[in-house]
Amino acid sequence: MADTIVALATPTGRSGIGVIRLSGPGALRIAGKLVVENDFAPKPRAAVLRQLADPANGETIDEALITFFKAPHSFTGEDVIEISCHGSPVLLRQVIDICLSLDARLAEPGEFTLRALANGRIDLAEAEAIRDLIDAQTSATARQAVRQMRGELSQRLQPLKDDLLNVIVVLESALEFVEDDLPETQTASVLESLRSIADECERLAGTFAAGHLIRDGLRVALAGRPNVGKSSLFNALLGSERAIVTDIAGTTRDQLHERIVINDVPISLIDTAGLRETTDTVEKIGVERTRAVLADADLVIVIMDASDDITDEDLAILESVKDLTYIVAVNKIDKEPSSDIDRLVAGKSEPADIRAHIVPISAKTGEGLDDLAAAILRPFADANADMSGLLITDARHHDLLNRCVQEIEGSINSLEEGSSEEIVLIGLHNALRFLGEITGETTTEDMLTRIFSTFCIGK
Question: What is the average pLDDT across 317-339?
């Protein structure tokens, strides 16, 4: 018999309400020990207000709403009790400790969802969607997670698995009962089915670029020599005075990290120390850290001062990012432009190819910031992607779809070359297994452990 688990289902810290969740065969018994009432027998799916007491001494500790979900009609498929207490961390810890003393054990990360998966309440893709919905940073991410949580991805994959299984049955039957090769008409039908399956898997996998973008977002680092307006631009993009701005060069010594959202894409924006040669020990450490941040960023915004001449430091920074994805924000266009900047923007100075990367802006007045926001997304956004449709947002799903396509294409090549059914079937069985891994039908225990370790405790 499974044991009974308990965990706090709401975030830690003080709040108006804290919810403690119990799941397992002992959930109702443990709740009965907590309630100041003999023969506690709540109706399923009905919240009741009851006093809670410490069974060790009978002292009342809180008044709480208790909801009972009877197996199998619960999230986990087991008996589930949810206790909505007042949100004092001390009180919540006390209630959990009492549950532990009554033979419950503390739940592992994601264990409630894992039990729902084990009891057939959800499949693995739907379980991962629950995690993604909790972690969603934008409304677009949340919408995609809800679609997957409602089974849209699983429903899209099921016909593909059925069609693939039908092909496997044909080939397995030929292997068992037909001495000669498959008739040409049947071979043509099998090839057509396999190409159709591979095309749909490839089309789904092709949505990952857009799905990954809205789910995981981008790391964008601001770079430039001191006093070109990095911190001013950082504040302008945030819409708040987060970074200190002064006329003193080298004010920023370490990175500042903040989150913004551009067109439903979460952006981790990083303000860095100005890049220059310096003898100041602290500033030198900041410069070294800046170089490391630039190497790890998805996009670097090199900031130049439109009112100043181009310096050797500017050219050195441009040279250092030439192999990275970058754009150049020419800041302070509200001031009189220097002749150097005029030539650079016109594409008449070295480096000659930089003109395509330039976005003129003013962090002070806000001019050009909308153009800069569009330029940030342009290298990563697929103009043809249907953001309203189902997107593959998980790298694991993307990898499995690609591996499925590779196996099917390998089987197609084998069939066209006249290979035996045994050879063709190897790839098709692998492809079916990869599709099954997305929804959890063929996933190993180690993989499940790795996936559910990313969940929060209490879910």
Answer: 85
Cα 73 to its chain centre, rounded Å, is 29
Task: Work out the pLDDT band at 284, boundaries 50, 70, 90.
Answer: low
Helix (H/G/I), strand (E/B), else coil: 131: helix
Is the separation of the CB atoms in 330 and 358 below 8 Å? Answer: yes
Which H helix or E strand runs over 61? strand 60-69
Quote the DSSP letter at residue 107. P
Domains and CATH numbers, the chain: 5-107 (3.30.1360.120), 128-207+392-452 (1.20.120.430), 216-377 (3.40.50.300)
The Cα 421–Cα 181 span in angstroms is: 9
**343/355 Cα distance (integer angstroms):** 10
Q: What is the DSSP string of 177-243?
A: H-SSPPPHHHHHHHHHHHHHHHHHHHHHHTTHHHHHHHHH-EEEEEE-STTSSHHHHHHHHHTS--S
Please tell me the distance from the alpha carbon of residue 217 to that of residue 223, in angstroms, as a whole number.
19
Q: How far is CA 442 from CA 9, 411, 458, in A?
A: 29, 21, 26
- Looking at the chain, the whole-number percentage of residues with pLDDT higher than 70 is 85
Flag whether pLDDT at 356 surpasses 80.
no
Strand partners, 68: 44, 81
Identify the weakest region by mean pLDDT among 13-27, 176-190, 358-372. 176-190
Which one of 110-114, 289-293, 314-318 scores highest in mean pLDDT?
Answer: 110-114
Query: Cβ distance 245 to 256 under 8 Å?
Result: no
Full-model pTM: 0.79
Q: Name the band, by pLDDT with cuts 50, 70 and 90, for residue 135.
A: confident
Query: In the β-sheet with 15-23, what is the strand arrangement from edge to edge?
Result: 47-53, 60-69, 80-87, 15-23, 5-8, 105-106
pLDDT on residue 295 = 81
What's the CA gap between 56 and 361, in Å, rounded? Answer: 68
